[in-house]
Design a protein that fits this description.
Structural class: alpha+beta
Number of strands: 18
Helix content: 25-40%
CATH class of the largest domain: Alpha Beta
Order of helices and strands: HHEEEEEHEHEEEEHEEEHEEHEHEEH
Mean pLDDT: 96
Strand content: 15-25%
Number of helices: 9
Strand order of the largest sheet: 1-2-6-3-7-17
Distance between the termini: 14 Å
């Protein structure tokens, strides 16, 4: 029988890295990942793990391996950027000076997702120290919060090609998510004709045209494949701008909408369908323009990564997770379709804390996540 030595979890090492990461501002925008990447890189190099950089020098993505550049079946991944702290008066603590109180660590990025990244780093250090036969890969990306350009650069590099499974450490309170809705952000643009407000019949009101187009889009559903976990698509009207003065007929109006899409829908296909419906309904002078999009992703519930993650959470926490899907987006929306990696999303911290003032993560959950990730990694090392 082969003896397998288990490296111990060093809680102080996880906590100290988390503090260092939070103290290093990486707000996006504007995108300041180069400094936080250096913190992470130095930490891993201090434990004998080198990295490969992908992407722009100022906004690097880091790939680490337990076997110096080699790949196995599994990648564990997270992002290094955070959303901006926002107005400081909304915080009761300094967002970049991490504080510990009542078993929680407070600061921007503690749960989304510098705490999870610290947990991934500890997992890889422990795994590397054990000298397993199969490599484990860790990925830390830039620019997840504004379009996943870091994950796109990594996918295009080909360096993860061949890896079968992934664990995205976004905060889920250690629940297991097996998919996520996609996104289609688009503009409804309406053109009109300016005229004096007292003579509206001499102009064409672009705001009214835009409202008609929006009403059509919101009131008539678009086809999709039903999935009990992904649910139904949603649309939110987020911005509308038009007109220059109350007594001028507006000749331009533009609205921005956020559609969360599911299987059977693509941003490109929806744009074509919306523009065709506008033409068919005779809503002149209006069009739908693309802003940003990514597909929905879904991992089968019987996939090995889902079973391994669910078993690991059950074993470590004592609670069997209920499988669900995310309404928000992650790097999985790039790595799954472009590289072929089947992912689960499972991480410490609550998504309700993400992007909020006084963001925090519970230390016990942070440490438990390392044990969960390590158990998943051990499963795929066999």
């Amino acid at each position: 029988m082969r003896f397998h030595w288990c490296s111990p979890l060093d809680e102080s090492r996880v906590l100290n890295l988390l503090k260092d990461l939070v103290s290093t501002n990486s707000e996006n925008p504007p995108g300041r990942e180069i400094e936080v990447a250096k913190v992470l890189q130095d930490h891993m190099e201090a434990h004998g793990i080198s990295s490969t950089k992908v992407g722009p020098r100022e906004r690097p993505n880091l790939i680490f391996s337990s076997h110096d550049g080699e790949k196995g079946d599994l990648v564990i991944h997270g992002h290094m950027d955070t959303v901006p702290a926002g107005p400081l008066e909304t915080w009761t603590r300094a967002p970049f000076e991490p504080e510990i109180e009542n078993g929680r660590v407070y600061g921007r990025g503690t749960c989304d997702m510098k705490g999870p990244v610290a947990a991934l780093a500890e997992t890889l250090i422990m795994y590397t120290e054990e000298r397993n036969e199969k490599p484990l890969v860790m990925l830390a990306t830039s620019d997840e919060e504004s379009g996943c350009s870091g994950a796109k650069a990594v996918a295009a590099s080909g360096l993860l090609t061949g890896i079968k499974y992934g664990v995205c450490a976004e905060p889920t309170s250690l629940q297991v998510l097996v998919g996520e809705k996609g996104a289609f952000w688009f503009k409804v643009v309406a053109d009109g004709k300016s005229a004096h407000g007292s003579r509206p019949d001499e102009g064409i009101n672009a705001i009214q045209r835009c409202i008609r187009a929006i009403d059509m889009i919101l009131s008539e559903p678009f086809p999709y494949e039903e999935d009990p976990l992904l649910g139904s698509p949603t649309i939110n009207l987020g911005v509308i701008e038009g007109g220059i003065k109350v007594n001028v007929v507006p000749d331009k109006c533009e609205a921005q909408l956020d559609m969360r899409i599911v299987k059977g829908q693509t941003p490109e296909g929806l744009q074509v369908m919306m523009n065709k419906r506008l033409a068919d309904r005779g809503i002149e002078g209006t069009r739908v323009e693309y802003i940003h999009g990514k597909p929905a992703v879904r991992t089968p519930t019987d996939a090995p990564i889902v079973i391994a993650a669910s078993d690991a959470v059950h074993m470590i926490t004592g609670s069997k997770p209920t499988l669900s899907a995310a309404t928000y987006g992650t790097d999985c929306s790039v790595l799954q379709p472009k590289v072929g990696i089947l992912n689960v999303v499972c991480g410490p911290g609550s998504i309700e804390q993400a992007h909020q003032p006084d963001e925090y993560i519970r230390l016990q959950e942070l440490y438990d996540s390392v044990r969960v990730y390590k158990r998943i990694a051990d499963h795929f090392s066999e």
